[in-house]
Design goal:
By secondary structure, the protein is an alpha+beta fold. Helix content is 32%, strand content 22%. It contains 8 helices and 11 strands. The strands form 4 sheets. A 3-stranded antiparallel sheet has the order 1-3-2, covered by helices on one side. Strands 4-5-6 form a 3-stranded mixed sheet, with helices on one face. A 3-stranded antiparallel sheet has the order 7-9-8. Strand 8 and strand 9 form a beta hairpin. Helix 2 runs antiparallel to helix 4 and helix 5 crosses helix 6. It is elongated. The chain starts with a strand and ends in a 9-residue tail after the last helix.
């Protein structure tokens, strides 16, 4: 919050000067009239200027900072919070010892705090949305570099194996880093699957399309289904008309039966019992 005291010939003039000094609108400040002033005799003798005290109202960003400081105090973490606003970005940085407790496992604690702070900053839906980034010990940049290396290694693995690869669950910000890092790749593509908080990035060969649940197809390839059941009852049967010498001709395989039969006639003779009464 900022406070200024201004004087003017009238209260309104003093307020206008204070608003111009703070670069704020009247709805965003608290006005306290210290002295209404006096015109004096003929507006000359005994005149007294008006004086006001104008203080900016706590913004949602200020509320978010206070909330974060209170949380850190309750966690018994000795830390300082600095805030930097630039256009639609609110960057908050926490400094102090024992920052590992604030970061948590793979940044989960830091992400949770960032989410809560963002809710406070953007609770007024009539105002433009502001993106909040909460950081400590430059963790965000280090994590981004790690994710880029993970993306490159996974992309190489997919390129060599020609099979899709699922990464670990990530928050939207981290998934965006993976997508952005591989969006210009000539060999792989990326997409996300699953629901929060277990949503994952899948890195797949270029031109591969999702196929069913968990499968994929590429260049006409489809997941191989179960082998069809072989029904041995479909074996050709003897025709009721004509000579049995043509029956089972399709079943006679010279390569398979050459050890037992010299020719097709010997093969028929060996199966003659199957055709009794059919001549």
């Amino acid at each position: 919050m900022k406070t200024v005291e201004m004087s003017g010939k009238t209260v309104e003039e003093a307020i206008d000067k204070a608003l111009a000094s703070l670069n704020e609108e009247k709805d965003n400040v608290i006005i306290e009239v210290i002295d209404e002033g006096a015109k004096g005799l003929f507006n000359l003798i005994g005149s007294k200027p008006a004086k006001v005290k104008v203080t900016t109202k706590p913004s949602h960003v200020d509320e978010a900072k206070k909330f974060l400081v209170d949380v850190l105090d309750n966690m018994k973490v000795d830390a300082d919070v600095t805030v930097k606003e630039e256009n639609d970005l609110v960057a908050m940085n926490i400094t102090g010892p024992k920052m590992g407790l604030i970061i948590g496992y793979r940044g989960e604690t830091l992400d949770s705090l960032q989410y809560l702070v963002s809710l406070i900053v953007n609770k007024d839906h009539n105002k433009p949305y502001k993106r909040v980034v909460l950081d400590t010990e430059n963790y965000r940049q280090k994590r981004e570099e790690t994710l880029k290396r993970v993306a490159e290694k996974a992309a190489y693995k997919v390129k060599m194996s020609k099979r899709p690869y699922k990464l670990e669950p990530m928050n939207p910000y981290e998934r965006r880093i993976i997508h952005s890092n591989l969006q210009d790749s000539e060999t792989v593509t990326t997409y996300s699957v699953g629901s929060e908080p277990y949503r994952k990035v899948v890195i797949a060969p270029k031109n591969a399309k999702p196929y069913g649940k968990g499968g994929y197809k590429k260049d006409g390839y489809k997941k191989r289904g179960p082998k069809p059941h072989r029904n041995h009852s479909d074996k050709p049967v003897a025709e009721k008309t004509g000579s049995y010498t043509t029956t089972y001709k399709a079943d006679f395989k010279p390569q398979q039966h050459k050890a037992e039969y010299k020719n097709f006639e010997d093969y028929l003779a060996g199966h003659s019992d199957e055709f009794k009464g059919e001549e």
